[in-house]
Amino acid sequence: MSDDGREQGGHTGQERVPSRRRSRFPGISSRAYEHPADRSALVALRKLSGFDTVFKALSGLLPERSLRLLFLSDSVRVSDQQFAHLNDMLLDACYILDLEKVPPMYVNQDPQPNAMCVGLDEPVIVVTTGLVELLDEEEMRAVIGHEVGHALSGHAVYRTILLFLTSLAVRVAWIPLGSLAITAIVTALREWFRKSELSADRAGLLVGQDPRASMRGLMKIAGGNHLHEMNVDAFLRQAEEYEASGDLRDSVLKILNVLPRSHPFATVRAAELRKWSESRDYQRILDGHYPRRTEDQDTSVGDSFRESATHYANHVKSSKDPLMKLVSDLAGGAGDLGGRVRRGFEGFTGNPPKDRAQDDAKDDAKDGGKGGFGGGSEAGPRDEPPTDGPSSGDRRN
């Protein structure tokens, strides 16, 4: 199930020659690559009666139509006559993921590297000149695959709801507790949206099938066009340091930093993508074993939410973050949690930190010598249950 190097363009009838052999995925369901948290939300939304009608009507109240006209009037539409190399990549991405209706794509003059996919009924892909000039061919292929993944999943629904609720929050700000309720929902939607970016990153990898290129693109988004000065492995080590370093104070600051964002941090995305690229799930998709769209209607909402819950539980257990370790200890009934919390927040009081290794040894003794995730022991990463370089939004990577 791979390109033989001379596949016919099923969408335009013209012959297209991929730059190298890559697998394609006829009839693939977006559930194959969606992050568990993203997939559970989408499955639930798709099960809602009248879902498509309601949200397409809702999108008409928002500036999507205006944006589409703006791009048409003030950007360059990608075609076989304009940005032909991008057009070839778009056709190829739709061919690989078997997306029958090719979304229109525009190049917008903007030095900020960015890409987005907007629109519920008719998705539109936009890339900036800053992004086109920053990435090489294989990195750009992953970006376009990322955006096509957004279109296939229908992720624009998140953006539509977020825009609507953000506008609503302003209007109900005068109502006691009204704004707080809307803010809580927006916070949850942003978490879903961040997971949708991890899903789309995976779609980009399925299109490009070059993990290093996908991660290079994320690294360039963070550090610019100085590839000779950067190293993917060192960039990934930053993600490990970000997760494991610091104390509970840093854990809280990480949460506060990420809450207002619609996209995960670049190093985190690269680390998540590497983990998925090395998983059995990714290899099974390449081998042709993946869920089909024809099976989407039979998907269980309950099973999807259980997979999501399992993923979060496994993430807490395997995380090296101090706060996640504390949560894992609490769940496991570890002893002297009060002492660990006190030591974790010593930075707030300005008191010098104690010898944590010695304290942890005492804690382990109190726990009866238990191993596992308590007492400062660390679990290695584990694969996620079977299942998003760029973005659909304010910042592509």
TrEMBL record:
Binds 1 zinc ion per subunit. The keyword Cell membrane applies. It comes from the Bacteria. Residues 1-30, 335-397 are annotated as: Disordered. This is M48 family metallopeptidase. Its cofactor is Zn(2+). It comes from Streptomyces similanensis. The lineage of its organism: Bacteria, Bacillati, Actinomycetota, Actinomycetes, Kitasatosporales. Keywords: Cell membrane, Hydrolase, Membrane, Metal-binding, Metalloprotease, Protease, Transmembrane, Transmembrane helix, Zinc. Residues 1-18, 353-369 have a biased composition (Basic and acidic residues).
